[in-house]
Design a protein that fits this description.
The structure holds 2 protein chains of 2 kinds. By secondary structure, chain A is of the alpha+beta class. Chain A has a single domain, classed as Glutaredoxin (3-Layer(aba) Sandwich). Helices cover 39% and strands 19% of the residues of chain A. Chain A is built from 5 helices and 5 strands. Chain A has a 5-stranded mixed sheet with strand order 2-1-3-4-5. Chain A starts with 5 loop residues before the first helix and ends in a 6-residue tail after the last strand. Chain B is an alpha/beta fold. Chain B folds into 5 domains: 103 residues, 3-Layer(aba) Sandwich (Glutaredoxin), CATH 3.40.30; 211 residues, Rossmann fold (3-Layer(aba) Sandwich), CATH 3.40.50.11540; 84 residues, Ubiquitin-like (UB roll); 89 residues, de novo design (two linked rop proteins), CATH 1.20.1440; 56 residues, Alpha-Beta Plaits. Chain B has 23 helices and 18 strands. In chain B, strand 16 and strand 17 form a beta hairpin. The chains are: A alpha+beta, B alpha/beta. At the A-B interface, helix 1, helix 2, strand 1, helix 4 and strand 2 of A face strand 1, helix 5 and helix 6 of B.
């Protein structure tokens, strides 16, 4: 291990930023892969693997990936929800690995909602 | 590095390890593998989270979901439901005593919500054995700032302005202490980190070293730069094996990264640290005893002056600070004295770490701003008294602290106010006592501890504590005399006056404070031969309430001295002559038919 200089501390911090973001929950974007039994049966695990691979490939530092249960629309699984900070969550249905890449590029990294794959914008209400 | 979508922060502090958290880790690894999640989810061993009563503890990120009291059999369900399918498991979350529904997020739990973390800023958030994780959360930037853009006198001024005072107990202003050592003449100067935590029931220093050893090392290195020292010792008790191991690892990593050793951060400054294991004598917490022990002599204090700042280890100027004090230093340098001194009271700035134990629902380790009231600590953070019994007293400051009664619960705590109340801040032990505690017995317990730990050098401490113990024992046995209370007060003054170090100097606190606030309990023991709390064996006896007794014979089976006899479904008889007052019948009876009088 080379001996550090003061400026190297910043580099290590930058390299480890994902860890801090994940543990402090202060992310710019959140990707939720729906992993209910229905989602998994429809291939959600593959979608999750694809999302994680994209995270690495794009070196997305302030994005959190998480899972959640069945959203109630089992026929349209696999589903993912993208939530940018301060914006309403967007649900994407019938996703494939290819669609995931497009959603990741345009919405997560680019900030533009991909309307053609989106089911709805916003969350259902619980009353 | 592979992408992990989830970090499982598993507590591997001493408390949780004793509660088998490492077995939980084995089960987690197995289950994650089973679901092929091992490349998606990372298990991180952290230091103590502080909520030791609920261990083993695990926090799942993202989401900060707090799981507690985990057992191995919970893990398969937890992994499948939450970590695979994303449905947090409510049954394994914490439900505060006053609420019905579990609280999923760690930060929403009362125990954590009221805390303010500075010394413990990284607890539970990093793997203490990975220096990169410490750096990722801003670690070693305070050192970089101190080495590259501050003169030694500027560092000292910053610490002075912050108002930081010694967290080991006495509360001496840290900046002034550094200044004395910096100005002292000597060919070599030394720094010592006092991690000889000897108070029964206290684990502040252990927990800091276990959860964030680099914060201590960084603070020490900044101090070394300010003082002009190049060598340091960490005096840590050998009963803390996990802390010793983590500190050694941290030192090695810091050396590899050039954060310790020669030419630190390329600035030319050199500093090395040696871990010295202590054998666990309470008196070694006193600085001159600690130095004697470090040099290989028997740990006896000596008269000051000269203070260690003039003549410490190997006769050289030495600056000793406690673990918690050192851990605060990097944050003060990073954020500035102004930021730190906003917190706290007029005389006591910043936060203090306390170990909250005894008859309180949420036992554990807490860090709170100075000036918080005892009531807030006991009821908001501690969750109130166990079994909702009545609060009686809180003992602060370890064995040589005093007992503070209910009428002072709204006291905002800082160094001065605790002293006025007849106690001390000490290193931060807090023992909560309920109505079932006899205050004379408590005084006797602490005097017994102190007489065992007295090094014996000063006659007043050695003989005085012995005499006090005998008098207190006689009072507990109902053989006390009217004049005893006065005699105890006289002895207290003599011990405090005639002892060289703080052990003798503060040893009278448990006795004086219990006399001050609970004099009536002393009088009941002496005049009426009664122990109001029903604790002192010689003064109580057990009775069977014949109306309530169902004749289940459970007490008969459990009585070790065959003092209870009886027939099934008939009230039993207790033979007072045979009874040894062990209290087992009282504990086993399901019908409250055994009474203490």
């Amino acid at each position: 291990m080379p001996k550090l200089k003061p400026e190297d501390l910043e580099q290590i911090s930058e390299r480890m930023r994902k860890m801090v973001v994940l543990r402090e929950g202060a992310a710019r974007a959140k990707i939720i892969v729906h992993m209910g039994t229905c989602g998994i049966a429809a291939g959600a695990r593959k979608i999750m693997a694809a999302v994680l691979a994209l995270m690495e490939e794009k070196d997305a530092k302030d994005v959190i990936v998480t899972s959640s249960g069945c959203a109630g629309l089992c026929s349209r699984e696999p589903m993912i929800t993208v939530e940018l900070k301060g914006e309403a969550p967007v649900k994407y249905v019938d996703v494939t690995e290819d669609k995931t890449r497009q959603i990741f590029d345009e919405h997560v990294m680019g900030g533009k909602i991909l309307a053609k794959y989106a089911l709805a914008i916003g969350s259902e209400r619980v009353s | 590095m592979a992408e992990y979508r989830m970090h499982l922060m598993l507590c591997a502090g001493t408390g949780c390890v004793s509660n088998r958290s490492l077995k939980i880790e084995e089960s987690l690894e197995k289950e994650l593998k089973k679901h092929k999640l091992e490349e998606e989810i990372l298990i991180v061993r952290t230091g103590c989270n502080g909520f030791c009563a609920q261990g083993p503890i695990m926090v799942a990120h993202p989401g900060e979901i707090f799981y507690q009291m985990l057992t191995q059999k919970d893990i398969p369900h937890l992994v499948e439901e939450h970590f695979l399918k994303g449905r947090p498991v409510k049954e394994l979350m914490y439900t505060p005593p006053e609420e019905k529904a579990p609280v999923p997020k760690m930060g929403d739990i009362g125990f954590f919500r009221e805390q303010r973390l500075i010394a413990l800023r990284n607890r539970g958030l990093i793997d203490p054995e990975r220096i990169e994780e410490y750096i990722a959360r801003g670690g070693y930037t305070g050192l970089a700032k101190a080495l590259t853009s501050m003169r030694p006198d500027e560092i000292i001024k910053e610490i002075k302005d912050s108002g930081l005072r010694g967290r080991g107990g006495a509360g001496f202003p840290t900046g002034r202490k550094w200044e004395f050592t910096a100005k002292a003449e000597g060919e070599e100067k030394y720094i010592i980190c006092n991690a000889d935590e000897g108070d029964p029931g206290a684990f502040m220093d252990r927990s800091i070293v276990e959860s964030d050893p680099h914060s201590v090392l960084e603070g020490m290195t900044i101090g070394a730069r300010a003082i002009g020292a190049h060598h340091a010792y960490i005096y840590i008790r050998t009963e803390y094996p996990i802390a010793v191991e983590r500190m050694r690892k941290a030192i090695n990593q810091a050396k590899e990264y050039g954060l310790l050793g020669e030419d630190i951060l390329g600035t030319g400054f050199r500093f090395d640290v040696t871990v010295h294991r202590g054998a666990g004598a309470f008196v070694c917490g006193e600085e001159t005893s600690l130095i004697a022990s470090l040099e290989g002599r028997s740990p006896e204090p000596r008269i000051r002056p000269p203070f260690p700042a003039q003549s410490g280890v190997w006769g050289m100027p030495t600056n000793i600070n406690n673990v918690e004090t050192w851990a605060n230093v990097p944050e003060i340098i990073n954020r500035g004295a102004g930021w730190y001194s906003q917190l706290g009271t007029d005389t006591s700035k910043g936060t203090k770490v306390f170990s909250l134990v005894g008859k309180v629902k949420n036992t554990g380790l807490i860090e709170v701003p100075m000036g918080i009231t005892l009531r807030k600590i006991i009821y908001d953070i501690g969750g109130g008294i166990l079994e909702d019994k009545k609060f009686k007293a809180i003992q602060t400051g370890g064995p040589s602290g005093g007992c503070i009664p209910e009428e002072l619960l709204d006291l905002p705590i800082d160094y001065e106010r605790l002293t006025e109340a007849g106690s001390i801040m000490g290193s931060g032990g807090m023992i909560v006592m309920d109505e079932g505690t006899c205050m004379v017995d408590v005084a006797r317990y602490f005097v017994d501890f102190l007489r065992g730990e007295s090094c014996g050098k000063c006659t007043s401490c050695r003989e005085g504590l012995e005499s006090m113990y005998q008098i207190l024992t006689e009072i507990c046995e109902g053989k006390g005399k009217e004049s005893d209370v006065e005699l105890l007060e006289e002895l207290c003054a003599a011990i405090a006056d005639g002892s060289m170090c703080a052990l003798g100097g503060t040893a009278s606190n448990p006795v004086l404070s219990t006399i001050r606030y609970f004099r009536n309990e002393y009088q009941s023991h002496i005049r009426d031969q009664e122990c109001p709390a029903g604790v002192c064996r010689e003064l109580i006896h057990y009775l069977i309430d014949r109306e309530k007794c169902t004749g289940c014979l459970l007490c008969v089976k459990n009585c070790p001295s065959d003092a209870i006899t009886g027939e099934r479904k008939e009230p039993v008889n207790l033979n007072q002559e045979k009874c040894i007052k062990c209290g087992i019948c009282f504990e086993v009876c399901k019908f409250k038919a055994v009474e203490v009088k």
